[in-house]
């Protein structure tokens, strides 16, 4: 690949870039998989795709969580199909029934003495992946040598205080969006402080570019609203409208940010009323899936999905294909963002596209430049 100063148009639209990113970014990236409370008993597992790999996290007999590549050491069959479940004691490959313990060791294989008289069984355990846990959030990296402490360190001391397992916190149904845009378009839109007052005129209505700031924290970024000069965890409009009722106990401590972007694919939004974690997963050139998990006070709980434009009850997926109203009329800023990201994707698919200038400022479009620098330095 040639050296670029900005991401080229091709990076949003071509199969070649999609494959390139799978290997250079996502085969070596920290991806959010779940929270410690998801793993209640030994044998509980979750799987997630990152880059070319499928990774499983599994609770061992000692309740320790371990991450492995989800592939059989015999001929390579993917072992676990579901996103989550329980394997009660062992992982058995359905092809020739090689059997692995929860610690990844190869425990047994049929007809060993006849068919594999020379096998070194100890060397044929599941391939490890890296796992990192911070504030009950679990991240995996397909590269077993990846350094979690180095990745998370810039955020230390700046995190949200939320306790997801307190009695005044409850998890809502996850939201799954199929997005007709490249994952980078969604990230860049999330980091863009220039659009808040304009695209979101009817919803967020700001802040203006000079009244918000993205602060760099290593490869990550933290957003604050700054309308009165100080850094706040909510924009002033929301602070004024929401008041103080419904605040969860652990989120009372002030001083945390409003949005945390963790390179490359995680967005965390803590508020006094709850916390949401979004994960972006590229599925094809110009397409991605976003999964959003949301923890709120139980008094707020309702199945929010049915109020979201484009939610299909049968598939459980939210998609612009199912919109029945214009996105600017539905009063939901996330739907406004989906609309604009998909429009931007269509624009970028035109060969007439050329880069325009980015708006200067840490509350405007500088963060898009920082994101692109980080991405390009990794590809
Ligand atoms: S591929 Fe798994 S047992 Fe043969
Ligand atoms: Fe937005």
From TrEMBL:
InterPro entries: Rieske_2Fe-2S (IPR017941), Rieske_2Fe-2S_sf (IPR036922), Ring_hydroxy_dOase_asu_C_dom (IPR015879), Rng_hydr_dOase-A (IPR001663). Pfam families: Rieske (PF00355), Ring_hydroxyl_A (PF00848). Keywords: 2Fe-2S, Dioxygenase, Iron, Iron-sulfur, Metal-binding, Oxidoreductase. The keyword Lyase does not apply. GO terms for molecular function: dioxygenase activity. Residues 30-140 form the Rieske domain. The keyword Cytoplasm does not apply. Its cofactor is Fe cation. This is Aromatic ring-hydroxylating dioxygenase subunit alpha. It comes from Sneathiella marina. The lineage of its organism: Bacteria, Pseudomonadati, Pseudomonadota, Alphaproteobacteria, Sneathiellales.
């Amino acid at each position: 690949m040639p050296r670029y100063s900005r991401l080229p148009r091709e990076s949003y639209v071509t199969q070649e870039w999609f494959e390139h990113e799978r290997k250079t970014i996502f085969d070596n990236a920290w991806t959010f998989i779940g929270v410690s409370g998801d793993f209640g008993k030994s044998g509980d597992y979750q799987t997630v795709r990152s880059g070319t790999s499928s990774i499983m996290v599994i609770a061992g007999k000692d309740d320790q969580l371990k991450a492995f590549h989800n592939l059989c050491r015999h001929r390579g069959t993917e072992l676990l199909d579901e996103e989550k479940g329980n394997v009660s004691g062992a992982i058995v490959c359905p092809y020739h029934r090689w059997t692995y313990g929860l610690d990844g060791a190869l425990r047994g294989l049929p007809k060993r003495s006849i068919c594999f008289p020379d096998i070194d069984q100890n060397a044929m355990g599941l391939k490890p992946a890296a796992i990192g846990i911070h504030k009950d959030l679990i991240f995996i990296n397909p590269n077993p040598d990846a350094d979690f402490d180095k990745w998370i360190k810039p955020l230390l001391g700046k995190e949200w205080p939320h306790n997801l397992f307190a009695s005044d916190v409850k998890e809502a149904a996850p939201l799954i969006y199929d997005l007709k845009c490249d994952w980078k378009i969604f990230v860049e839109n999330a980091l863009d402080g220039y659009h808040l007052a304009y695209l979101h005129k009817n919803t967020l209505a700001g802040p203006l570019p000079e009244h918000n700031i993205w602060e760099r924290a290593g490869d990550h970024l933290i957003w604050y609203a700054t309308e009165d000069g100080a850094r706040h965890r909510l924009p002033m409009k929301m602070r004024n409208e929401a008041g103080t009722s419904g605040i969860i106990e652990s989120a009372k401590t002030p001083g945390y940010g409003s949005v945390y972007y963790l390179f490359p694919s995680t967005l965390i939004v803590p508020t006094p009323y709850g916390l949401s974690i979004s994960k972006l997963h590229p599925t094809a050139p110009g397409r991605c899936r976003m999964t959003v998990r949301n923890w709120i006070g139980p008094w707020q709980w309702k199945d929010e999905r049915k109020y979201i434009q484009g939610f299909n009850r049968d598939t459980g997926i939210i998609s612009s294909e199912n919109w029945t109203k214009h996105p600017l009329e539905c009063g939901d800023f996330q739907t406004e963002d989906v609309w604009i990201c998909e429009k931007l994707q269509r624009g970028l698919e035109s060969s007439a596209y050329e880069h325009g200038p980015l708006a200067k400022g840490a509350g405007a479009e500088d963060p898009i430049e920082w994101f692109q620098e980080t991405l390009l330095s990794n590809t």
